[in-house]
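A protein record pairs a chain with a discrete description of its three-dimensional fold. The following entry can be read in just this way.
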Amino acid sequence: MKAGVDSKVIDIVRRNDAIAGIDEQDATVIRFGRQLFTEKKVDSATFAKAVQFFGQHGVTDLVAVMNTYAVSGFYAIAVDEQPAAGGRALPKSK
């Protein structure tokens, strides 16, 4: 939210909700990430839409950023990372 991402977009990602009622650019990023991580490939239409919004280099950056967060998540799982004392845990995803 500090970077200007709409809280509705964050909630859709966090809860794995249907992509509805948000900006087409945000929906494209979510669709791209979901396809990348669940289907292990991005379909031509989604890739073309991402290139339309971000350009070829921007899509490469998008994959790199998503990869960085995925690796961070795997690391947190591997070392059983927990919130600091008194901190609250993130809610479990669906």
